[in-house]
C-alpha cells in the first residue's frame, strides 16, 4: 500500500444487481483526513456504493482501491487485512443486544488483537470516553437512548483505530438534538484521530455541517453529476437536480 495514495479511489465503477444497473461511471478520490459525504435521493444507490467501498459487494466493472491497492485484485487474507483498517457505523447501530456496551467494543479487540484483558478494558474505557459515554461499559443497549446506542456503536467502530471510518445515514432515527450532537462528534473524531470519514446521508443540516466535499448520485441518469463542497454546489449548482436536492425544505422526502 502506498502512503501517498488516497485512502479510497474509485475508477469507472459500475454498480449492478445482475442486469439491473444502479450506478455507472463512478470515478472519484477521497482525500486523506476529509469528511466525504455520499448524497442523493432515495433509491439512488448511496448505500449500495457504501457496501462496495467496505468490501461487502464486488463492482460489476471498474476498480476500487484502498490505500492504492485494488481491493479485489488481492487474495482473501490480504483483503481481510485491508478491511480491518475500516470501521463502519451501520444505520441501526447493530450492537449485540445480549452484550453490554463494553463487551460489544471489546469483541473486535478480542478477535483481531493479542491484547490481554486489562489492555482491552483500558481501550474500551478510552473509546467510550471519546464518544461521551464514560462509565457506561456495563449498560446493555436496551438500557440507553437511541442517540447513546449510536455513540456506543461508534465506539465499537473505532475500536481498532481504523484508517477510514464509514457512516450509513448516522442521523436516521434520531431527534434533531441528538443528530446535531452526533455531527459534532464526527467532527471531533476527524480532528482528534486524524481519520478519513465517509458518510452516506440525505440530511441537509448534517451535510452542510460536516462535509468537506459531497458526491451527488443522480437516480435519473444513474451516475454521479456533482462533486465538491456542498455549499458551493448549492450556490453554483451544476444542474437542476443538484440544486433541488440541496435547497429542498426539511420535510421534503429525499
Describe this structure in words.
- It is a single chain.
- Helix content is 37%, strand content 24%.
- A hairpin with a 2-residue loop joins strand 4 and strand 5.
- It has a 6-stranded mixed sheet with strand order 6-7-8-3-9-10.
- Helix 3 crosses helix 4, helix 4 crosses helix 5 and helix 6 runs parallel beside helix 7.
- With 254 residues, it is α/β, with parallel strands linked by helices.
- The mean pLDDT is 91.
- The protein has a single domain, classed as P-loop containing nucleotide triphosphate hydrolases (Rossmann fold), CATH 3.40.50.
- The protein has 9 helices and 10 strands.
- The longest helix is centred in the last third of the chain and has 18 residues.
Q: What's the helix and strand layout?
A:
Layout: E1 8-17, E2 20-30, E3 35-40, H1 46-53, E4 61-66, E5 69-70, H2 76-83, E6 86-89, H3 101-112, H4 117-130, H5 146-157, E7 164-168, H6 176-193, E8 196-200, H7 204-210, E9 213-218, E10 223-228, H8 230-235, H9 240-247
Parallel strand pairs: 3-8, 3-9, 6-7, 7-8
Antiparallel strand pairs: 1-2, 1-4, 4-5, 9-10
Helix pairs in contact: 3-4, 3-5, 4-5, 6-7
Amino acid at each position: 500500500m502506498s502512503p501517498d495514495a488516497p485512502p479510497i479511489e474509485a475508477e469507472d465503477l459500475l454498480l449492478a444487481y445482475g442486469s439491473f444497473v444502479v450506478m455507472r461511471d463512478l470515478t472519484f478520490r477521497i482525500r486523506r483526513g476529509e469528511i466525504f459525504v455520499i448524497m442523493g435521493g432515495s433509491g439512488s444507490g448511496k448505500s449500495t456504493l457504501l457496501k462496495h467501498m467496505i468490501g461487502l459487494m464486488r463492482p460489476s466493472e471498474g476498480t476500487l482501491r484502498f490505500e492504492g491497492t485494488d481491493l479485489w485484485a488481492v487474495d482473501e487474507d490480504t483483503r481481510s487485512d485491508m478491511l480491518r483498517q475500516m470501521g463502519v457505523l451501520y444505520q441501526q447501530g447493530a450492537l449485540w443486544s445480549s452484550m453490554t456496551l463494553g463487551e460489544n467494543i471489546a469483541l473486535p479487540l478480542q478477535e483481531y488483537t493479542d491484547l490481554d484483558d486489562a489492555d482491552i478494558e483500558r481501550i474500551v474505557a478510552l473509546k467510550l470516553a471519546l464518544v461521551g459515554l464514560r462509565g457506561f461499559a456495563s449498560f446493555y443497549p436496551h438500557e440507553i437512548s437511541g442517540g447513546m446506542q449510536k455513540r456506543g456503536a461508534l465506539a465499537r467502530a473505532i475500536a481498532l483505530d481504523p484508517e477510514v471510518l464509514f457512516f450509513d445515514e448516522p442521523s436516521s432515527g434520531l431527534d434533531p438534538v441528538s443528530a446535531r450532537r452526533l455531527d459534532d462528534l464526527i467532527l471531533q473524531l476527524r480532528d482528534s484521530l486524524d481519520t478519513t470519514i465517509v458518510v452516506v446521508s440525505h440530511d441537509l443540516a448534517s451535510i452542510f455541517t460536516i462535509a468537506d466535499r459531497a458526491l451527488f448520485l443522480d437516480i435519473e441518469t444513474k451516475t454521479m453529476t456533482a462533486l465538491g463542497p456542498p455549499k458551493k454546489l448549492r450556490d453554483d449548482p451544476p444542474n437542476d437536480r443538484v440544486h433541488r436536492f440541496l435547497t429542498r425544505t426539511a420535510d421534503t422526502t429525499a
